[in-house]
Amino acid sequence: MELTDLPVYGLLRRRMDWLNQRQTVLSQNIANADTPKYKSHDLKKFDFKDVIREHKNSSKRFAMSATNASHISAGAASGRTQGPFKEDGRSRPYETAPDGNQIVLEEQMVKMNETQINHNMMTELYRKQLRMFKTIMRGAR
Amino acid sequence: MADELISSLRISSAGMRAQGTRLRVISENIANANSLPTEPGSDPYQRKMVTFKNRLDRELGIETVRVKKVMPDRSEFARRFDPSHPAADADGYVSAPNVNVLIEMMDMREAQRSYEANLTAMRSSRSMMQSTIRLLR
């Protein structure tokens, strides 16, 4: 058994992937804080329930499979956000500037801080798990 | 994946570059706030403006920001009464640049604020990356 195949690690890794992708989306928002008509973007909320459901039904899921190296993956063609997680279509910005820009720096900063703190939490949890394994192994000596 | 974080660093740096260009144009405007014409009938310094645009970076597959165009401000020139000036017209007026230093100052503050926001985003991405790497220890 590979240690990193445990469901706990899988979940943590997926959550960290989500956080990384969200960080990219938020960076885009901040970089475009003065671009006219720029709409603010965000990812769909990460739900552990969805991940578990997906995990259970993974054999029944209908996904396009790439059988050839030159096949374009379905995710890459679908546009704005890259990566496996979907974008939240409903954008609810705090306000829209007269030039159509929806970015409020404070809002983006709050979201970014949230992302960073969650990411810290995930790495700490990961470390904690590893430490538990180490403790067990040390006990066996 | 660290890949996402690296692209977010690049997005932030693109934002900072765009704001840097904006600051350059603003300082050009302020420096030329008193650039009057040298002969009657010619135009003084015309204020410049920066516009931004969202651009897809095809190499990285991400959307960054960049300066779309630096274009002249078409608003009317100010007129200053100064009959002794070599560029004064028959009535004694000289046309002066359409630069308002107060507006430039405000614009500069805004550029600075956006620049700092990008910097903060960069710092936050970096600390996320570091905390991932620290797992190895």
Can you tell me about this structure?
The complex is a heterodimer of chains A (141) and B (137). Chain A is extended, with a radius of gyration of 19 Å. Chain A has helices at residues 7-31, 48-56, 74-77, 105-140. Chain A has one domain (3-140). With 141 residues, chain A is an all-alpha fold. Mean pLDDT of chain A is 78; it is low at 75-81. Chain B is of the alpha+beta class and 137 residues long. Chain B has one domain (2-136). Chain B has a two-stranded antiparallel sheet. In chain B, strand 1 (48-57) and strand 2 (62-72) form a beta hairpin. In chain B, helix 1 (2-31) packs antiparallel against helix 2. Chain B is elongated, with a radius of gyration of 22 Å. Chain B starts with a helix and ends with a helix. The mean pLDDT of chain B is 89. The chains are: A mainly alpha (141), B alpha+beta (137).
Distance between the termini of chain A: 20 Å
- Taken from the alpha-carbon principal axes, the silhouette of chain B is elongated
* Helical content class of chain B: 40-55%
Number of helices of chain B: 2
Oligomer: heterodimer
Main beta-sheet annotation of chain A: none
Mean pLDDT of chain A: 78
Query: What's the β-strand tally of chain B?
Result: 4
What fraction strand of chain B?
15-25%
Radius of gyration of chain B: 22 Å
Strand/helix succession of chain A:
HHHH
Biggest β-sheet strands, sense, barrel of chain B: 2 strands, antiparallel
Summarize the structure.
Chain A is an all-alpha fold and 141 residues long.
Descriptors:
heterodimer, A: 141 residues, mainly alpha, 4 helices, B: 137 residues, alpha+beta, two-stranded antiparallel sheet, 4 strands
Task: Summarize the SSE layout with pairings.
The complex is a heterodimer of chains A (141) and B (137).
Chain A (H helix, E strand, L loop, with lengths): L6 H25 L16 H9 L17 H4 L27 H36 L1
Helix pairs in contact in A: 1-4
Chain B lengths: L1 H30 L16 E10 L4 E11 L5 E4 L11 E4 L4 H33 L4
Antiparallel strand pairs in B: 1-2, 3-4
